[in-house]
């Protein structure tokens, strides 16, 4: 009964998390498509060149404290206020360092405009520093509805401004304005809706307690952030801004479905898993259910996108982005394994074993750096194949460490998702064969999606895949 109650609670939180993420991400995706049509790949490339520096600074702003607040059972107002003031201080320091580094960043890439772009984009660090605690409080209370209101309002208004500026010929500055306004609005609305005001309290002991958990997440997050953005850093130095734009667009587009869906699922179930962190059997059972459900949703999406890569790009992004087809195809296959990585990572957070998480990240990034060095001389396509290979190593390494705390290893996890994987592959083959009979790209895209959807759902019903029945049952409950 407790397990059923837990899953029921998960469904409710996932629904609101999905509404918030999907509404924001879908609108953001549509706006990105419009901007991609109005802004040149080289201008996208300029923003992508700065991504690693902004992302590293953002990692310091949070410092792992948001997850630490959620994970801690007996959190107090002192904890919240301490984290708030610490985050503000770190955000200011991070921006000053980024501001002073801007000329050297521009010199490294040999792009003078990057100095000014860096100084403006860096302001987002200070803005986001004011909302870290608000997001943590809403996550703890499973209040994704409030987050949805803030995110949706911010992305619509900022997106419309970005499109207007891009249409008016402002180029890369349209992207800068959109990003800054989005952060300003989101932070302002969160502060207004949460109605939380920090007390004039700063506790060193509270900071130390939270930092013992958060510091390992910070180091792990830094390693991951640096690695995933290292490609733009290397490509920007070795190739052109246009190449950076191509890679960045392919990478963002391929990551979008799996990362967004897992963000919905993981942040909804994380507070719930933290509540049962000491009930090992219940935690293990729920972990397996979440793993199968995540793979059931994400595997077919990513395989379909890989098979339909060319018509997707031509229809959505236009032929000026056609060179990213092969990059996109390989990256979709690599990112389809995100559910296993994310849920195994998260279980280490839930159990408080951020030391294992840090060790895993160090090993993974050493492997990833080796793959990057080996593939770098051979062009963008080989670099993306290298990323695909890295994702397999990522999955293997993190499962090794998660097995130490949840007692389910490679065989058990792969066995539990094998039927879903097989069904998804069969669906992909069916879509590919159907494309051979159609020449029109619009029909290829429409019929490819329709055939894949019908095939996947029909055979899910035929083979009695329990995730299909579970989703169907809960869908009926929601609409009634």
What does this structure look like?
By secondary structure, the protein is mostly helical. The chain folds into two domains: 200 residues, no CATH class; 240 residues, no CATH class. The radius of gyration is 22 Å and the shape is globular. It has 20 helices and no strands. The two termini are 23 Å apart. It is 86% helix and 0% strand.
How much helix, percentage-wise, in residues? over 70%
Uncertain residue segments: 1-8
Cα separation of the termini? 23 Å
Largest sheet: none
Cα shape: globular
| Beta strands, count | 0
Write down the oligomeric state.
single chain
Describe the SSE topology.
Layout: H1 2-38, H2 41-62, H3 65-71, H4 77-109, H5 113-121, H6 123-129, H7 132-140, H8 144-167, H9 172-194, H10 204-238, H11 241-275, H12 280-307, H13 309-316, H14 325-335, H15 338-350, H16 354-375, H17 380-406, H18 410-435, H19 441-462, H20 466-479
Helix pairs in contact: 1-8, 1-11, 2-4, 2-5, 2-6, 2-10, 2-11, 3-7, 3-10, 4-5, 4-6, 4-10, 6-9, 8-9, 10-16, 11-12, 11-14, 11-15, 12-14, 12-15, 12-18, 13-19, 14-17, 15-17, 16-17, 18-19
Features:
single chain, 480 residues, mainly alpha, 2 domains, globular, disordered N terminus
A few lines on this structure:
The chain is an all-alpha fold and 480 residues long. It has helices at 2-38, 41-62, 65-71, 77-109, 113-121, 123-129, 132-140, 144-167, 172-194, 204-238, 241-275, 280-307, 309-316, 325-335, 338-350, 354-375, 380-406, 410-435, 441-462, 466-479.
């Amino acid at each position: 009964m407790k397990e059923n109650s837990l899953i029921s609670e998960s469904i409710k939180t996932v629904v609101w998390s999905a509404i918030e993420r999907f509404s924001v991400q879908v609108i953001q995706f549509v706006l990105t498509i419009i901007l991609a049509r109005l802004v040149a790949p080289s201008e996208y490339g300029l923003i992508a060149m700065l991504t690693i520096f902004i992302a590293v600074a953002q990692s310091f702003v949070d410092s792992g404290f948001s997850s630490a607040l959620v994970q801690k059972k007996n959190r107090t107002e002192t904890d919240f206020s301490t984290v708030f003031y610490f985050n503000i201080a770190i955000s200011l320091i991070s921006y000053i360092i980024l501001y002073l580094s801007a000329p050297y960043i521009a010199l490294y890439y040999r792009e003078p405009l990057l100095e000014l772009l860096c100084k403006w984009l860096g302001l987002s660090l200070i803005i986001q520093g004011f909302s870290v605690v608000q997001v943590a409080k809403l996550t703890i209370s499973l209040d994704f509805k409030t987050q949805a209101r803030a995110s949706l309002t911010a992305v619509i208004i900022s997106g419309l401004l970005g499109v207007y500026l891009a249409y008016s010929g402002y180029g890369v500055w349209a992207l800068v304005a959109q990003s800054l306004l989005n952060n300003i609005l989101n932070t302002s609305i969160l502060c207004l809706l949460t109605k939380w005001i920090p007390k004039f309290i700063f506790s060193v002991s509270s900071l130390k307690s939270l930092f013992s958990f958060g510091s390992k997440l910070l180091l792990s997050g830094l390693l991951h952030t640096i690695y995933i953005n290292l490609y733009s850093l290397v490509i920007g130095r070795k190739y052109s801004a246009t190449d950076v734009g191509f890679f960045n667009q392919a990478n963002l587009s391929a990551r979008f479905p799996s990362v967004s869906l897992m963000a919905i699922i993981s942040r909804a179930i994380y507070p719930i898993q933290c509540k049962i962190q000491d009930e090992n059997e219940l935690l293990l059972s729920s972990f397996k259910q979440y793993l199968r459900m995540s793979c059931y949703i994400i595997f077919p999406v990513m395989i379909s996108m890989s098979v339909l890569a060319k018509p997707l790009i031509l229809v959505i992004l236009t032929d000026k982005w056609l060179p990213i087809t092969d990059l996109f195809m390989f990256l979709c296959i690599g990112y389809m394994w995100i559910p296993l990585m994310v849920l195994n990572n998260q279980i280490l957070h839930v159990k408080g074993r951020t030391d294992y998480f840090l060790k895993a990240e160090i090993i993974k990034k050493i492997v990833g750096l080796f793959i990057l060095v080996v593939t770098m001389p051979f062009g963008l396509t080989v670099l993306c194949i290298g990323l695909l290979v890295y994702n397999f190593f990522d999955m293997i390494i993190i499962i090794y460490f998660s097995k130490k705390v949840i007692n389910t290893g490679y065989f058990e996890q792969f066995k539990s998702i094998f039927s879903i994987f097989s069904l998804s592959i069969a669906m992909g083959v069916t879509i590919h064969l159907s494309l051979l009979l159609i020449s029109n790209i619009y029909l290829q895209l429409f019929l490819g999606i329709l055939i894949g959807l019908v095939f996947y759902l029909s055979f899910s019903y035929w083979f009695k895949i329990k995730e299909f029945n579970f989703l169907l049952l809960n869908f009926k409950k929601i609409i009634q």
